[in-house]
Write a structure and sequence with these properties.
It is a single chain. The protein is mostly helical. α2 crosses α3 and α3 packs across α4. The chain has 4 helices and no strands. Helices cover 77% and strands 0% of the residues.
């Protein structure tokens, strides 16, 4: 993104925020004016505070609720992806980043053969390594 586009986006966000603030102030003043006629100034202020607290609570609930996917009855969920599957998916999604990461890995391995030996020995040890006591 160039600087002109970033500044335009920032100006648009500021304009929307200012318009929202004006709307909130106007709505709260109108609500206060209506409530003040029926229950007095203190009651009108309490009504305004209560209404906006209720709105804030509803927005917070909507923003923080978690989406739960609907699962079919009797169908087991798919097993979680292994780290290798995740890495392959990431490499397919971002091939340039994958090539860069591979280049860095090759450079590190070429400069420090002890890292290669540690990786090879850890893969060869596999499940034969002693388990730590529980």
């Amino acid at each position: 993104m160039n600087l002109n586009r970033i500044l335009s986006l920032a100006a648009a966000v500021a304009a929307v925020a200012a318009a929202a603030a004006v709307c909130v102030v106007a709505a709260s003043f109108a609500l206060y004016a209506v409530a003040r006629d029926y229950i007095g100034p203190a009651g009108g202020a309490a009504v305004v505070a209560g209404v906006f607290a209720l709105i804030a609570a509803v927005v917070a609930i909507v923003a923080t609720r978690k989406a739960t996917p609907k699962t079919k009855v009797g169908v087991p969920p798919p097993p979680p992806a292994s780290p290798m599957e995740k890495a392959i998916t990431l490499a397919k999604a971002h091939p340039i980043v994958a090539v860069g990461a591979a280049a860095v890995a090759v450079t590190v391995m070429a400069r420090n053969p002890a890292v290669v030996m540690a990786l090879v020995s850890s893969f060869l040890a596999g499940n034969n390594a002693p388990r730590p006591p529980k």
